[in-house]
Design a protein that fits this description.
The chain is an alpha/beta fold. The protein contains five helices and seven strands, in the order αβββαβαβαββα. Helix 2 packs parallel to helix 5.
C-alpha cells in the first residue's frame, strides 16, 4: 500500500489535532490558560477576562432552577463582599436555557453583588470545557491560568484560603 502526499498530510494534521486536544484536556489545572471570556452583563457592560488580568477571578456557571446554585449564592456574595475590596472578581454566568427575566429577578431577589452575564448562545459555557451542569466553577489566577475547576458545591473555606493566597 502506498500513501499519496495528501493522505499523509491529512494524517499528520489529524495526529497533531489529537495531540493538542489530549494536552489541553489532560493538562493539570494551573497550567491551562483560561479561555477569553467575553460577555454582556445584566447592566449592559461588556466584561472580559482580559480586563481583569492581575486579579484572581472566580467564574461560576449557574441556573435559576439549580438548588445547589441557589444554596451557594449567599456564600459567593459573602466571599465577594469580603475579598472584592482586596482584588477578587467574581463573574456569574447564567446558563443559556435560563430565561433572562428569570435570571434578572433572581439576581435582584438574592441581591447578587457581582456581575452576571447571560450566556444566551452557550458560547462561554462551550469555551469552558462545554459546561452543561451547574454549579460549575473555575478559579482563574491573576496571570490568567485555571487553577481550580469544580463541578458541584464549593469548599468555601478552602476556596477562600486559595484566593487569599493570590491577593
Amino acid at each position: 500500500m502506498t500513501l499519496n502526499k495528501e493522505t499523509l498530510i491529512t494524517g499528520i494534521v489529524i495526529v497533531a489535532v489529537l495531540a493538542f486536544a489530549a494536552v489541553w484536556l489532560f493538562m493539570p489545572a494551573g497550567l491551562r490558560p483560561a479561555p477569553p471570556l467575553v460577555g454582556q452583563t445584566l447592566d449592559g457592560r461588556t466584561l472580559t477576562l482580559e480586563q481583569l488580568r492581575g486579579k484572581p477571578v472566580l467564574v461560576t456557571f449557574w441556573a435559576t432552577t439549580c438548588p445547589s446554585c441557589i444554596e451557594e449564592m449567599p456564600h459567593l456574595a459573602e466571599l465577594y463582599r469580603d475579598l472584592h475590596p482586596k482584588g477578587l472578581e467574581i463573574i456569574g454566568v447564567a446558563m443559556s436555557y435560563d430565561p433572562p427575566e428569570q435570571v434578572q429577578a433572581m439576581v435582584k431577589q438574592r441581591q447578587i453583588p457581582y456581575p452576571v452575564i447571560l450566556d444566551v448562545q452557550s458560547r462561554i459555557a462551550h469555551e469552558f470545557d462545554r459546561v452543561q451542569l451547574t454549579p460549575t466553577t473555575a478559579l482563574i489566577s491573576p496571570d490568567g491560568r485555571i487553577v481550580q475547576y469544580r463541578l458541584g458545591l464549593l469548599d468555601m473555606p478552602k476556596l477562600r484560603q486559595t484566593i487569599q493566597e493570590m491577593l
